[in-house]
Fold:
Amino acid sequence: METFTTKKFNMPTLSGISMKSVEEHLKLYNGYVTNANLILSKMAEYGVDAEKNNYILSELQRRFSFEFDGMRNHEYYFASLEGGPKEINKESPLCISICKDFGSFETFLVLFKRLAMTRGVGWAILYYDKMTDNLLTTWVDEHHLGQLTGLSPVLCLDMWEHAFVADYMPSGKKQYVEDFFKNLNWSVIEKNFK
Ligand SMILES: [Fe+2]
Structure:
């Protein structure tokens, strides 16, 4: 039995991002689910003789966070576009916390969009840290390098080129970020925060 299952997303028509591109992207997501399961099954298989397979087990374990976070980040990303665009509720606990931690909602948007333009492939992520009751942003290289321990993802923006190049060309990265926010269903993000 497989530990992780591929989630289904009810993707609406998006502005700027084509359905073809979304379909291809969902196939990539499926690959992360498959490989996260594969690593678990291989570790069980090689774990029968852990001493003999020590090196293989170490390398499988090293790659697990790449596949797992690749799976999970995409689940946040696609879910945040389901249901179509919806503006943030300015009275919501999320918006109140954003204003507390970033000065204003508009300032947060400027900062997060700048974060998304970080060179290289990875993710712009907004997290909630329950230990300090703060929202924090970070850049995650690939899917896993730079994740913040113990924090809950609230908003995950895919900045791998596969997310936008087919529709925007590499030079259209900035427009992709703008369109992501045009397409974003903030009610999902409010729920993540809750
Ligand atoms: Fe992706």
User: Anything to note?
Assistant: The beta strands are 122-129, 134-141, 152-158. The longest strand covers residues 122-129. The mean pLDDT is 97. The first helix runs from residue 19 to 47.
